[in-house]
Amino acid sequence: MEKLNIDKIINLCKTKGFIYPGSEIYGGLGNTWDYGPLGIEIKNNIKKEWWRQFIQCSENSYGLDAGILMNPRVWEASGHIQSFTDPLMDCKNCKTRHRADNLVQDYAQKHNININADGMSLEQLDEFVTEHKIVCPNCGNHNFTSIRKFNLMFETYRGVTKDNQNIVYLRPETAQGAYVDFLNIQRSMRTKIPFGIAQIGKAFRNEITPGNFTFRTVEFEQMEHQWFCKQGSDEKYYDYYKQKGMDFISSLGIKKENLRYKDHEKLAHYAKNACDIEYLFPFGWGEINGTHNRTNYDLKRHQEFSGKCQDYLDPVTNEKFIPYVVESTYGVERLILALLCDSFDTETLEDGTTRDVLHLSPKMAAYKVAVLPLMKKEHNDKALDIYKKLCHYFPCTFDDAGSIGKRYRRQDEIGTPYCVTVDFDTLNDDTVTIRDRDSMEQIRIHINDLPKYVLDKLI
Ligand code: GAP
């Protein structure tokens, strides 16, 4: 199969209403994107499925919607103020800003030097840049400032005065909400360890490097599940959530051969063990999920910084302890991008023509059904009737413009799994044809059977 070019996906997203560049009429804003009518449907499908698997069908897990803005002490305790940084340097010649670790890694890769820039200190990066006379990718000069740490958190001010007393941060991860509310949830839900807290919400990071379309953005949605357990059982749950991550991502319809586990070589400041699931994007392997054994680092730090005891009291043994946490985290936008890349295909048909098609699973598709009147004049009223009825059950679209063949192609391109065509027979016997996107086969069914036929495919 021909290698997919990411530009094809970017173009499809823009022209078909999935994803547009953010604030485009003003020239855009780096690494921001808007989700259009079809994109938001897929986003909602992913979130709904995640919620179903991680809360609804999960034993002893609870949902949460904590605030984006939190007391700034939260970010001191979590270590983000101190450690959530990228190593940056500026080109003195053309004034562009670069991530030193990326430039070093790119150089090493090009020259077959076996290093991991991610694990290098600022001094080691500085030395490497000088020794190898690495040049600015923008202007080609080797004339950089020294490398310094740049915090990725966005700051803003609460209240009327812009001084340091009033700084608040846009959260860089949703996880801290679950830690801060851990005892609230444990007590109000009268639950016992082990239990989980899950939330879906926006996170913000001041990413300065180009993002590979929606892969790296400054604003994105995370779906994070924190499993609170007793020390000693953490390794078992870590393995469990690694597997659950792979099962969830595959259940969306992403092919297993395009997914792999990648253990972290350099662990985050909070982690005892960490592993990503990566997807093979057109621009290379990239992280879409992480499983982290965060130990009791976060709760211990919150106890220390808030002065509030975070002990859990075991009702059976009367033992008091601060639980360990195994985190399972997913980026919604990266999952959408993986889904779109994975399901896109340009197929050559029997008659030699080609069609672009998104083989999205019916559950993930933006529209489940397109209702198409064969002849506009004769069939529109009946088709609109059917469309309005089906809309009560699932998202549908209606298209009466152009030849039926062209309309099928338009739906294939956006991944609509079923096309319902209203024709002359429909007016007599209330039957329609329903065309399957992938096999392109058609069957005839009664309009009363349509909702069940489609709903059965969405389970
Ligand atoms: N609470 C742990 C945490 O935030 P992370 O690996 O930094 O861990 C979790 O982020 C997930 O969020 C990633 O696996 C990725 O899917 C998504 N993500 C992280 N940074 C992102 C960015 N700049 N743009 C889009 N998605 C991002």
Q: Summary?
A:
It is built from 15 helices and 23 strands. It is of the alpha+beta class and 459 residues long.
Overview of this protein structure:
A hairpin with a 5-residue loop joins strand 17 and strand 18. The longest helix is centred in the N-terminal third of the chain and has 20 residues, at 37-56. The chain folds into 3 domains: 6-71 and 154-341, Bira Bifunctional Protein, Domain 2 (BirA Bifunctional Protein, domain 2, 2-Layer Sandwich), CATH 3.30.930.10; 85-151, Herpes Virus-1 (2-Layer Sandwich), CATH 3.30.40.230; 367-457, 3-Layer(aba) Sandwich (Rossmann fold), CATH 3.40.50.800. It is an alpha+beta fold and 459 residues long. It has a 7-stranded mixed beta sheet with strand order 3-9-10-16-13-12-11, with helices on both faces. It has helices at 6-16, 37-56, 73-78, 80-83, 100-110, 122-131, 175-180, 182-188, 234-251, 297-306, 332-343, 376-390, 404-414, 424-429, 450-457; strands at 19-21, 33-35, 61-63, 85-90, 97-99, 148-151, 155-157, 167-169, 195-204, 219-229, 259-263, 273-281, 284-295, 312-313, 320-321, 324-331, 344-348, 354-358, 369-373, 396-398, 418-422, 431-436, 442-446. Helix content is 34%, strand content 26%. Bound molecules: glycyl-adenosine-5'-phosphate. Glycyl-adenosine-5'-phosphate (GAP) binds at residues 173, 175, 205, 207, 216-217, 220, 222, 224, 287-290, 327, 329-331, 333-334.
